[in-house]
Each structure stands twice: as structure tokens, then as C-alpha cells.
Amino acid sequence: MKFLQTTNPDFDQQLAAVMAQRGSDTQSVAGPVRDILQDVRKRGDEALCAYTNRFDHMDITPVQLRVSRAEMEKAASLVAPATMDALRLAAARITAFHEAQLPEDIDYTDAAGLRLGMRWIPLDAVGLYVPGGKAAYPTSVLMNALPARVAGVKRLAMCVPTPGGQLNPLVMAAALLCGVDEVYRVGGAQAVGAMAYGTESMKPVDRIVGPGNAYVAEAKRQVFGHVGIDSVAGPSEVVVVADANNDPRLVAIDLLAQAEHDEQAQAVLITNDVDFAHQVEKAVERELETLTRRAIAEKSWRDHGVIVVVRNWDEAAEVANEFAPEHLEVMLDEPRQFAQAIRHAGAIFMGRFCPEAVGDYVGGPNHVLPTSRTARFSSGLAVHDFLKRTTSIETDGEGLKAVGPAGVTLAREEGLDAHGLSMAARLKALAEQGQKPKA
Amino acid sequence: MKFLQTTNPDFDQQLAAVMAQRGSDTQSVAGPVRDILQDVRKRGDEALCAYTNRFDHMDITPVQLRVSRAEMEKAASLVAPATMDALRLAAARITAFHEAQLPEDIDYTDAAGLRLGMRWIPLDAVGLYVPGGKAAYPTSVLMNALPARVAGVKRLAMCVPTPGGQLNPLVMAAALLCGVDEVYRVGGAQAVGAMAYGTESMKPVDRIVGPGNAYVAEAKRQVFGHVGIDSVAGPSEVVVVADANNDPRLVAIDLLAQAEHDEQAQAVLITNDVDFAHQVEKAVERELETLTRRAIAEKSWRDHGVIVVVRNWDEAAEVANEFAPEHLEVMLDEPRQFAQAIRHAGAIFMGRFCPEAVGDYVGGPNHVLPTSRTARFSSGLAVHDFLKRTTSIETDGEGLKAVGPAGVTLAREEGLDAHGLSMAARLKALAEQGQKPKA
């Protein structure tokens, strides 16, 4: 853990050094991932089975790649009713928030007489990657599948590795809750390749979303362009901005909630009170003792944890913007006022009763958020990721008369004869024959 | 050129073969691009000058990388007044359409008492890549810079190669018109690297937009994740859907307006009338004779041109969706009705008086559009590309009481202790002490 203070003359360099450590460098696995993708593209199901059997210690043939509806239902039946209720509450809240995101089409005729439009159209098919093993989170399924459903995507295909052949009951229950019944027991780069290029048993999709390890992230990067992807997810962060009027234990727990995700995760406290900072530091040590995932959380906090003591909240906002964190908790009396100064954050959690975990599960907004400072230029998952825009221009002769001559001028300046001619020939036809450009 | 008919029993395979040829494979330059990017990252300005001097036949030192305002103004002063008027008309129309795109924030409190929000925030800094040489198009500058301006981006940096040292007057005039005065005479992968990582004389940006050759496209792909990019642009297409009630010459010119861009460009006619198809084919041959860029247009038409004769407009829509073209012209009596069946197209041009070139210059919607069938999952450039979304959740004790227990259940099921505890500890504090979670 690094303890920084803005009063230190070297603060800027110290902060820069912390930032330089972040980032999602998947270059080291680029070669193996390229090989896997090529192999899946070439050998299809055969390659999928080979990798799955090797990496997930299984023994399947192509007909077993897809998880049957009966298998899904059997696994899902193991989920306790209270958990199903919680999943349903989460699903309803996520659906409601993403419905509020649905954007409006544009359609207007301007003064020149051109009718201009923009229509949002759902993607045909989306692939959801769901990590297996220790990170098999049912709420990931909800957060990726429900926005696609709300957007109107017809086909959702899901890939989830099942190490040792075990289906995760919660993941299957979540998939069924979202109406996803096209599920494949495949993970890693091979799953990404199958979704991008298709195999005998898996039709290709148009966009791949969902978190994954470095292989999955690099595979998504490599198939990008052939299909769309959501983002290349890196290690995740929280920045907690808190004054001394908070329980240090609650702040410590919130920091550890980030740290327990992953050894590479980063938990940051920004406070204006050095004594409070030390109290939180001690509380972290105490709370660490109680956690099942202590080893992970402890390593994350030791290696990547940061406490920054600032002189005032303006400085705090500046430092928070520098981190451009995935998650920002604002535990102040006027959190909304503080949030006005935030330019870069995936999601903001305001108030002393709003830990980030609320957003992970039951808040409503998406928990798939830009990590590793990418909030500078990217956004959390939303219905927009499952829609695309088609613009349109409609004009008759009058509209063309209004804007065409300027178009012809520009086309000629750019040396594009046929561009100019496509407008000029119509303008000429209009001048000679009135409205109809038919020869 | 390929002449296909849906009545042919092999039509599906023939169409699939045409599609398989498309795509933006930049793999072949991946190695050289990686070297250039690493070199720029390591040696900064020195590398930039070396590549610029080598590729653009120049002899500059780092102080000359940036084009001065005086140089820009001097170059821009060479543009004819009528051309400046045309550029201003285009700029005004592009600005107006992109202002209509500005999305609304979300802010509401739901029945459970959680205040949920989503705020659109402009990016801090954007880099515009503008191709040099034969493809130095001033309207590219407008189409990339104006949406960023409308979105509220404060810093716009532009890179444009200047082969032989010549500044393009139109490009400089367009940049000044958009208020862009941070311009560097650098192109290729080295420009992308400089914008992504920064050098001594160029601060890094958060997102890079703009078209370019295979090196630029591959460089954008490789820096993606470190910064945002718009898309990996490939060869461009038009699909013209036309009935026999059109002048074959106008259709031919529209096809050639696409073909003259690039030898890899693809122009496609879909019609329901085989005689009309042959008339267009002949008209293409005649019009080719007249074009300055005949060699390019001819090669594009020979290698990539397609005529598809369909039985009816439903088939036409299906085939058009299969192409998922960058540009779709609908030259029918009821173009809007036909367009309803289109799921995949970057932009649609409706009516017999609306050639695609209107959209290239003076329509208003963006001309930076998804190419090579990527309209299946991506969109043309818009203000959305220069904004990002930050979601927010605000809740007091009552809101947490409403949703927290379900959150605790899910966190425990996912084995994330601290996540559960961050909510459970607050719920406990609320139960014991009323509203304040302070210990």
C-alpha cells in the first residue's frame, strides 16, 4: 500500500508512478491466442473440443458442446428460492434502468427541405462470455444479457467454461432468467474465436461482450473489427472519497470489496484527514483477518492499494479524475456536489449508505464498467452497445437544388469527378426537365 | 464485375463467395506497425521525424513537427471564396445534425428510493487522423472535428502527412473552420503512436478518429485499449437499389462515385429488372471513359462490382442486409417503405434525387461510416463517439434497506465476503442506531 499526501513536493511524480503501473497489457499472450483463433477458424468444433478437453479437464465431442435446456434446468433447480428471489429483484432493477437508457430516433426535415434521420437498430446476434471457475458470477450474466434483451437483440449465445464438467447452477439460473438458452461449455480464447467466426455447431455472432482473463481479453482484441466487442477489460478499481465523518471500518470494508476481486485490483482511499487515513489503514488490517478471500485481498492491498491525503475536495476531485476509476464512492455530506467535478469514472456511488456492491448486484445500472483508466474514453455497458445507428437523408429535387451546388464544388475540389457528376447530372436534369430525373 | 440473379440455384453460394472477399485484414502489416509504435513510444519526436522524413520525403526536426497557425492561415488563404462558402455550408449542416444527436442525461428516483442517473461527459482530448496525398479530403476534417466540437471536447489535435512538405490548403482551411489549430505534419502508424502515447511535442489524446490506409488502421487496432478508436476502416461500399424507372446513367454514375474512391471499393446494384441491369452495365462502361480517376474506378468495378437481379423488393432487402453496406441508395418510389426492412447499413440515401455524394459533403449526417460489413455491429461517427457515460447510484438508509438484503444474498452466493459485508454492516448499523452508520 502506498500512502501519499498532496502536501509532499514529489506528489505528482508519486501519483504518476502509481498510474504507470496500471493498464491491461495482454501482449504476452498475443502469440498463443493468435494460434488458438486460427485453429478454431480452421478446424471448428474439433479444435473447440480439443482445447476444452485440455484446459478444462473434460472429455467431450462436438455434440456435447452445447448445454441442453434440460441440463440447464436441472442445474438451475439447485438454486435456493431466496437466491432466485434476489436474482429476480436484480433482473427487474437492471431491466428498468436499461429501459430508461433506450435512445430516441431522429427524424426531421430542415429548412433546405432535406429529411434527415437516425434510427437505432438492434444487433442481430450477440455472444456473451461468462468466466468459469472462481469468477463464475450469475450477476455477470444478468448485466450482459439483459441490456441486449432490452435493446431487442433476437439471438443471444453464451459461452461459459465448465472446468471438470460442472455447470454452475447460479449461472444457469441467471441465463434462463434472461431467456438465454443457447449455451456452450467452452471458455478462453477458443470461445471467443468460435463466437467470432462460427463453427459447425455455433453460428457466429456480431458482437462479443463479457469479462474474462488475459486470454479472453486478447482474443477479443484480435477479433475486433471482424465482430464488435465491448471493451478489453483489465484489472478493476475503486476510489473511495471519504471525510472523517465516516466509520473507518465501513470504508475499509469497501476498499477490501474491491481488493477481494483479484490480486491486480486496486483500492484507493482519498481523504482530507490524515488521522482518519490511518484509522482506515488499521481497519483494513483487522478486516482482512475475517475474509475468505484474504490472500487475494491482502496481495491486492499490499501491491496496489493507495491512500491519498489531500488538502481539500478540489484536490480530491483532481486526483480522482487522474485515476479515472471504474468505481468511485463519494462518502461525503454533499456527494452530488462533489460528483459535478468528476470527468472520468465508470460509475459513481453517492452517499454513506451506497457501497459499490449495491451497484454490483441490485442498483440497476450496469456493473460492466471501464477499467484501468479507460473511463477517460469509454463507458460502462449499456443498451447502446447492443444497438447501432443508421442515418438517413431523403431529398427531392428542391432539396438537391438547395445543397447540391455546394456539394459539386467540394467534390470537384477533392478531385472526385463521379461524386460531383452524381449531383451535377441530377441538377442538370432538374433544370432541363423539371422534377423528374428520368431521361 | 459479377452478375448474379436470385433465380440462379447457386445464388446463395455465389453471394457468399462475394462476401468472403470483403473484410479489412491488416494482419500483413501488423509486424511493421508494432515496430513503429514501439519506436515512437521509446524515441518520441526523434522517431516521428525519422519516419516522416523517410516516408514523406521531408527533412524536418522536432521543432517543425507542429504546423504553425501562420502556416495554416497562409495555406488556407489560397482557397477560393466559392469553395470557402461551400465548406461553410457543409460545416453548418454537419453541426446542426450532430447537435440534434446530443443525448439526454438520465436522473430519476425509483420506487425503492434509489436515485439513479447517467451523465454524458465529453472526452478531454481527441486526435484526428487526416490522410494525406491523394486522399486529403477537407470534408474528412469537418466530419471528424465538428462532432467532437458539438460534444464539447476541449482539445482537438490533428495529424496529417504532408508528402514533400506541401500543406493542403483545403485541409488547413477546414481545420481552421473547425477551430483546430493543433496540427502536426505526421502521418501513418507513427502519427497514431504519437497521439496514443504522446511525445515531447505532442500530448497524448484519449481517442483517435479518422480514416487511413492499412498501416493507420492496424496502428489504431494495436493502440486500442490504451486509447479509444473510432473503428478500423476498411474498403468502402455502396449498394444502389433501383427500379427500371431510373436513368441508367445516373445509377452508373452513383456506382462509379463509389468505385473512384479506391481500387478495393465495392459498388453493387440491386434491381428487379434484368434489362435495366444491362443498361446500367453499359452506362458504367461509357461513363468510365470520362473520369479522371478512371483507372481506379475501372479496377474497382472489374474486381469488386456486383449486379444482383432479384425477383422482388423483399429479396432486395435481404441481399442488401447481407451486404450490410456502408452506403445504401434507395432509388424507388417509396424509398422509406423499403428502408424499413433494412437492418444493416451505415447510411441510407432515399429518393431519386439523393445520390450518396450528398451525404459525403453537405447532407449533415456523418460520412465516416462502418465499412466491410461492420454495419452489422457498428455505427457511423456521431457525437456519441466523443462522449462517455458515467452512471450513478445515490441512496440513503431507506434505499439500502429496500435492496441491500438481496444484494447481500447474491454477494454471499458469489463468495465475495467483503461485498456482502459492505452492505450487511450498514444494514446492521441502520438497525441498531437509526439513520447514521457512523460508529
TrEMBL record, chains A, B:
Its cofactor is Zn(2+). Zn(2+) binds at residues 258, 261, 360, 419. This is Histidinol dehydrogenase. Keywords: Amino-acid biosynthesis, Histidine biosynthesis, Metal-binding, NAD, Oxidoreductase, Zinc. The active site is at 326 (proton acceptor), 327 (proton acceptor). Catalyzes the sequential NAD-dependent oxidations of L-histidinol to L-histidinaldehyde and then to L-histidine. Belongs to the histidinol dehydrogenase family. Substrate binds at residues 236, 258, 261, 327, 360, 414, 419. Binds 1 zinc ion per subunit. GO terms for biological process: L-histidine biosynthetic process. NCBIfam families: hisD. InterPro entries: Ald_DH/histidinol_DH, Histidinol_DH_monofunct, Hstdl_DH. SUPFAM superfamilies: ALDH-like. GO terms for molecular function: histidinol dehydrogenase activity; NAD binding; zinc ion binding. It comes from the Bacteria. Its EC number is 1.1.1.23. GO terms for cellular component: cytosol.
